[in-house]
Structures are given as structure tokens and as C-alpha cells.
Amino acid sequence: MNNSVHSFHIPVMGLCYTIDSPVKVARFGISSVVSIIEDELVEKMRQFHSEKSGEEFIPIPETDIDHRAKRITAYLNLLNRIVTNQIEELKHQTFNEDSEISKYFELLPDESVERKLYRQMLATKNVIDKIELQNELRTKIKAGSIDVNIMSKIDLVNYDKTGEPLSSAYCDAVAAFRGYANSDLNSSIVFSAGYNPRLYSFIEKYDDFFPDENGELKKKIILKVSDYRSALIQGKILAKKGLWISEFRIESGLNCGGHAFPTNGELLGPILEEFRNNKQELANELFQMSSNAMVAASRKFLFNEQPELKITVQGGIGTAHEDKFLHEYYQVNGTGWGSPFLLVPEAVNIDETTLQKLAVAEKDDYYISDASPLGVPFNNFRKSSSEQQRVMRIEKGRPGSPCYKKFLSSNTEFTEHPICTASREYQELKIRQLEQLNLTETEFKNQYEAVVAKDCLCEGLSTAALVKNHLTLSHKLEAIAICPGPNLAYFSGIFSLKQMVDHIYGRTDLLNKLNRPNMFLNELNLYVDYLKKEIAKNMNSINAKQAKYFLNFKTNLESGIAYYKNLIPKIKIETEEYLNRMKDDLLSIENSVKNISVPMVEV
Fold it and tell me: Cα(503)–Cα(492) distance, rounded to whole angstroms?
């Protein structure tokens, strides 16, 4: 199993932005996460990379009942072959200024043993000694992991030609999981967006997720969580099946890209503190449970020893100092750097037009929207062509999108089979209903805006890869959606892979001139704004349950502020000026929270 030579990874971004990132960065030891939910895009990218690498492409038609899983398996196996070949080629290159083998070692963190050996080789004058060091360095080269991501809740039931539902094995998330499980990859699968019992019940059917004869896992499980409680609950569910969670990937509830899953006011710092204090206890409990379950199930092989439980964090990290503090104080095993890599075309799949817009975007261009049909807050970009298309359709009196892929179809308000709330079909039906309810002008406007805010993400979040690589557009739809986190506001320009990695490791500084608060305070501000908007949105119809929720939310924010007051003196890596500014920012936010009025409602 890959043990990364880098201290960071590139998280999944959209459906297409990291769809082939392993081909771009894995040979430099950088791990990245591929979305495997959109099998039509996966198939098109498989054809593109097969032809590019000189392999025969044999299509897997949609008429094949198991086309989804088969397409994903074939694509992941292709990525694995490509990266394996890249590594072999890299190992045979000559060390010179422009070679990729030199780039591999130049990108490594300064404290890396391999990078120090590389610097020693460069300084060595004796030819024989130099060659020996170069040969040793070649043996140290390791590919970054080709990890995959599944949003667990995107698990639509599919139907056969007669309209009968197919078995659970063919549901969207389960089929995608089987596609990964059947692949050759020795890597990890990231489960995000919560618990799915149907999906989780399938994991134990595959031996790769259990120890082999050497006590090793070929395929590992990563759970993306927003708090400790979620990690404990889901971890126990899987442990009772004999499954080991290799990593809990903590993501900020709001200071992230894509879908945002806000907590009830619990902040990233206190959440990390809870993991830090309870990590070993959590690991011991889950290991005991999974070991007992494996014994009860008469598994042939067990772990030789308790494996490491990794804790990583992502969402809003923007400086080398923040990254280092997370590693040193909270003792995390790694960090995720997502949105800034959208400005690195070497690392992601992004079309030129969107890239240029992001490069000069302003802070207000990034915002939390209601665009997702999942009903979850969604980080959006005002200048995206998808957002422009959504507004144009409304102005033409034709809100909503044609719905071909149906991954986010979940609404049965008007139909027997689920449809998507971003679809034209749903929005026309819903608006017609609103028109018949005799609502006031204000009420109608508010409810109308909530309906037409939904946008098609299945198409929008996959189009950039098609445009970038000159591939056939799905259903001739060319509008591009993109979902950067708000942290991208502090980066302007287009960067090379080396520049971004050097920024992460503190060898250069890519931040623009905007005043950027500490990542913890950025998140805190987002939560304060979120609470204010939620209270305002529900002010005229608030009930006792909502009032209690808002009050608890505010209390959690106040507890988080108190935590940060005590944390600031422990941030030794920053200057006194920086820490004083942080204290002032925190005081200002504290006053803002105190002024939030939560309506009292009698039960």
C-alpha cells in the first residue's frame, strides 16, 4: 500500500476536475482523488486516455446491464497502467535540470529523507559516487495513490427496459463501488456525504477490504466526516462488519469546495482537538470491534498488528504556516489542498475560459448557493457559464434544465419515479402549483426563487473536461459549473505544479494582496453569516424546534470562540503582529455573535 512521500493530497473536485489527476501528478508522488459517480464521463475519459497512450479502446455500451461498474473498473485499471508506465519511464530518465525525475525530488518537502539524499547527490563531485546515489534515488520513487470518491447518498435505483427496478447491486453508488472493488488498484476509496446502509452492506463482500496473508489491505476505506460523533458512529457500523477505517478525513463544514455540510455551529479547531485527544481510544475501540467481527466471520487472515488510524484535514488551508500548525499541533497525518489547485492546469482538468475567470476572480464571486438538487448548501462561482445559463433560462421563461443523467433525482412530489428538482419538468410543475396557492407577492417570489435556484450539476460539473480535451459534449450542453471553496479568493493567477507545491511547503508565497484572516477565523466568519441568514430566512415561520437549533448553534459558536482565545498563544509559528491581528479579528467576530438575536418561541 502506498505511503505518500508528500504531506498533502489533492481532494476530489467536482465530477471532472480531478477525473484524471493521477495521470498528471501521481508520478511525482502526489496522491489525488477521482470522482467515479459519472460513468458516461468516465467512459469518455477512458477512450481519450486509451487513444493517447496507444491502447485499444473497446466501448462498454449502456445496453450492458452492468455497464456502470464495468466502465469504472476499466477506467481505473487504465489509470493504474498509465501511472505504472510513467513511473518506470521516470526511473530510467537522466538527472538534469529539465527532467521529470529531477522534478520528482525537487517537489518533495524539505525535511524529506529522499529530498535530502537528492541534494546530496547534486553536491557530489565524484562521478562514481554520484551514479551510486542516483541509482539509490531511483529505488525511492513511489507513485501517489489513485484514490476514488463516492458520494454515498447518490444511490438512485435503476430500472430495466420494462420499467422494473433492478436489484440493489445496480444502484448508482453500489455499482460505482463495485467498479472500484473489482479494479486492480491498491489504494483507498473515500466515502462522503453520510451513511448509506445499502452501500455499506456491499463492502464486506470483497476480500480486498480485509487483511491478506501478510496482514495488509489492498484496498482501504477513508470516511470523510465533519465531526467526531459522525466518525465514531460510522466507524462502529463498519467495524461491526469486520472492516477497518484506515483514515478519517475531516472537512470543514463550510470552508470547503463543492457541497457544504455545515455542522450545528461546531468549528474545525475544537473538532480537531477532539480527534487529537481521542484518536488512540477511537483506534483501539474500532480495532477490537473489527477484529472480533473478523474472528466471528471466520476470516482466513487477520491483521498481524493494529494498523495505523490516520487523521487528515481539509478545507480552507491557505498557507504553509497553517499547514504546518495542523501537522504539529493537532498531529494530523496529512492535509488536503483542493481549490487552489483549480489554478494549476498541470494538476486538474479545467477549460481555458473558466481558468481565466478564476485567475482574476474577486471575493464576491465565490458564494454559498442553493443550486444543489440535494438540498445541501453548494459552493458556487458567479461567473461560471452554468450560472449564467441558469439566469438566462429564467429570463426566457424556461427555468430548469433538461435532465438526462438523473443522478440527483430524488423528488416524488409530482411523479411516481423520482425526478430532479433542477429539471425543467419539476420546476414547471412546482411553479404551476405555487401559482394556484394564492400566495402574497412576497411569498410567491421567495418560493419561486427557491425553486429556480437549483441547477444541473450532473452536466455542469463534468463539462469542463470535455471542453478541455475537445471531446463530444453530452447532449450538446456546454455550460460549465465549478464549485471552488471561498479560500480561492486569496489566490489570483495561473500557477505551475511546482509553484503550488512550493507554496504548500513554504518555499514561495502565492497569496494575493487581499487581507486573509487565519483559516479558523475564515471558517468562523462563514458560520456566523450562515446562522444570520438561516434566522432571517425562517424569521416569519420559526417554530420551537428551529429556535432551539439556532440557540444551540449560537452557543457552539461562542464555545468555539472561547477555544480559539486559548489556542492563539499556542500558535508559535506565527509572528506577534499576526497573532495580535488574529486576536482583534476574533474579538470583532465575538461581538458580532453576541448581537445575533435568536427568536424565542414557546412550546
Answer: 13
Q: How far apart are CA 469 and CA 236, in angstroms?
A: 43
Per-residue pLDDT of 381-417, as tens digits, reads: 999 999 999 999 999 999 999 998 888 898 999 998 8
State whether the Cα torsion 478-500-75-216 is positive or negative. negative
Question: 252 is in which domain, residue-wise?
Answer: 204-316
CB 10 within 8 A of CB 35: no
Q: Which residues, 6+ apart, have CB-to-CB distance to 589 below 8 Å? A: 521, 524, 525, 528, 561
Which of the four pLDDT bands, split at 50, 70 and 90, describes residue 194?
confident
Of the candidates 19, 48, 49, which has an alpha carbon nearest to the alpha carbon of residue 33? 19
Q: Which residues pair with 190 in a beta bridge?
A: 149, 222
Query: What does the longest C-alpha to C-alpha distance in the chain come to?
Result: 88
- Cα dist. 267→253, 339, 548 in Å? 8, 20, 19
Q: How many CB atoms lie within 10 A of CB 491?
A: 25
Contact (Cβ atoms closer than 8 angstroms) between residue 2 and residue 22: no
Which residues are CB-neighbours of 126 under 8 A, at least 6 positions away?
none
The answer to whether 557 and 265 have CB atoms below 8 angstroms apart is: yes
Q: What is the 3-state secondary structure (H, E, C) of 521-543?
A: HHHHHHHHHHHHHHHHHHHHHCC
Decide which of 268, 298, 316 is a domain's last residue: 316
Q: Does 209 reside within a domain?
A: yes
- Locus of grid cell 509559528: 573
Dihedral, CA atoms, 8, 14, 16, 21, nearest 10 degrees? 0
Q: Give me the half-sphere count of Cα atoms (radius 13 Å) on the Cβ side of residue 182.
A: 16
Could you give the CA distance from residue 279 to residue 309 in angstroms, rounded to a whole number?
Answer: 8
pTM of the model: 0.95
Burial, 237: exposed, middle or buried (Cβ in 10 Å; 0-12, 13-18, 19+)? middle
Last residue of a domain, one of 285, 316, 347: 316
Cα separation, 462 vs 153, in Å, equals 19
Structural domain includes residue 566: yes
Is residue 334 included in any domain, yes or no? Answer: no
Q: Could you read off the pLDDT of 54-94 as tens digits, one per residue? A: 999 999 999 999 999 999 999 999 999 999 999 999 999 99
